[in-house]
Amino acid sequence: MDIPQVIYKTEALIAEDIDAYLEAHQHKSMLRFITCGSVDDGKSTLIGRLLYDSQMIFEDQLEALEADSKKVGTQGQEIDFALLVDGLAAEREQGITIDVAYRFFATEKRKFIVADTPGHEQYTRNMVTGASTADLAVILIDARLGILTQTRRHSYLANLIGIKNIVLAVNKMDLAGYDQGIFDQIVSDYSAFADEIGIESFVAIPISGLAGDNITNRSDNMPWYDGPTLVQHLEDVEVSVTANQSKPFRMPVQWVNRPNLDFRGFSGQISAGIVKPGDAIRVLPSGKTSRIRKIVTMDGNLDQAVAGQSVTLTFDEEIDCSRGDVIVTADDPPQVADQFESTIVWMDEDELLPGRSYWMKIGTQMVSASIQSPKYQININNLAQLATKTLNLNDIGVAELSTDRPIVFESYTDSRDLGGYILIDKMTNRTVAAGTLHFALRRSQNVHWQDVDIDRAAHAQQKGQAPKIVWFTGLSGSGKSTIANMVEKRLFALGKHSFLLDGDNVRHGLNKDLGFTDADRVENIRRIGEVAKLMTDAGLIVLTAFISPFRAERDLVRSMVGPDEFVEIFVDTPLAVAEERDVKGLYKKARAGELKNFTGIDSDYEVPKNPEMRIDTTNLSPEEAAELIVDTIVGSWSYTI
């Protein structure tokens, strides 16, 4: 096999002047790309070929060269291709690349990071992880098999994530007899699919990863192909950082630098545009404006900074700016909203629970977000829109999403940094989904808070008490409603203004449309939380008696009010005791299979970790429990100015 001339040139430069080589290498552009496709389409073989043909010039090897250039010499010893590919395959067998394997190599023109992702459908989330930072996707197709389900899935996801550069690598052409007709038919079939999902253009290259055809050198076996080799295309394609420099200036703030009282700077990586001292800027979401005074870096101040650079900016005027804010050009800012339409890739073993509150990370912004029941799920094979109430692992759907406060955003088609996000489970800290924002819902722009003269504080002062939500939680039959009722009677006798929301009573009206699935339970508590919050705005002490089995929803209600306005009372009754009481006969029905999704039997109850009070009903009567609750915390319910 011929060794590319670029290798000889590289070795000669290393041998002649290692400093010059390292300097040239340092200023090469970087391309991040992903390889994806179905199982056995040849991803590992292709990556092995790229590494082999580039002589394995890794970043860590370059550091070693810089440390001891005398050891480099002119050896230029080749690495055995078969051993290299066998090593990559062995990693897969050991499960190392079940996640995402990143490889590093370089040519004379450019440095590369390639993400090698699994081909199995159950690892769609791993493909999304690798693609999230990629500028280009190499989608492999076995020439003998043509377009498969995973070809469609990965193409759809690559386009969804915003990868504009698509390479259709028709692999194993050697096993297809280097037949042009087979290649042309695959390209035609893929073109039709690409049009359906909105891929505007792609580059199709017939290759053989094993034989090396059209990887680095042009193949003599396919004289009918006159396009670039794969490496030539990878070297010449425009990277996103360059393209982003022509967009309006955007910089999400990662942290605030204030080493002393005389300096206050705002640090982050510029995601788009160019900024110079004197430029007018706006800080979002506040909308405050100023001008850039200095662009500060470790190597000194700059006359300008561009997309991709990490810098610290200082302002002419002191205005509020903190982590999570976005510094933008003053005359062309992005939008600020709190309700959106979004495409979501669900990446967790547990299904999406509409209405549940998740952490949403978008750029440097971190907010609470909840998703409504999906409008539809997307069938990757035919792009049909399927009716669904939730999303399961690897499902892709479109849904409305709302955040607990306005965020700075742009459509994902315009900005991957301000339009792409991940969702994190608040209890487990697992990343459960990745998504892209389409647009803000009109109602988020048109519905505003109305100022009122009689506010929450005025209502509380009138009643002479501090508003509270007293949240009783526990198994069915634990005694929540009984104790809550007795507590309210005592509060009433003391002249307190209160209201009791009971689980069964609410389901006769406000929540009569909800069942007892996990998703419906989440929505049940979300609605109760909103009602309870409105009642505290009226200055009331609100008592609630709900099983409320999930910590996430109890914490959601806690977050709706002030830190001292939510009192969680765990009515702790063992399942055996609650089942023995079985006042309503529900446990008996659940045990007989007549009642599904019953808490404690076939639906989980998550015990509170740090409740304000724990009531052990095996040791206390309802009367004693109510007296203890009132005596313990009623003193904090008096309003003070």
Report what the structure shows.
The protein is of the alpha+beta class and 641 residues long. It contains 20 helices and 29 strands. The strands form five sheets. Strands 7, 8, 9, 11, 12, 13, 15 and 16 form an eight-stranded antiparallel β-sheet that branches. Strands 2-3-1-4-5-6 form a six-stranded mixed β-sheet, sandwiched between helices. The longest helix has 20 residues, at 518-537.
The description of the largest β-sheet is: 8 strands, antiparallel
Span between termini = 86 Å
Helix-strand makeup class: alpha+beta
CATH architecture of the largest domain: 3-Layer(aba) Sandwich
How much is the average pLDDT? Answer: 84
Q: Under CATH, the topology of the largest domain is which?
A: Rossmann fold
Number of helices: 20
Q: CATH homologous superfamily of the largest domain?
A: P-loop containing nucleotide triphosphate hydrolases
Stretches where pLDDT is under 50 for at least 5 consecutive residues are 1-10, 56-78
Shape: globular
Question: What portion of the residues fall into strands of 2 or more residues?
Answer: 25-35%
| Helical amount | 25-40%
Tell me the radius of gyration. 31 Å
The multimeric state of the shown protein is: single chain
Number of strands: 29
Number of domains: 4
Q: Which CATH C-level class of the largest domain is it?
A: Alpha Beta
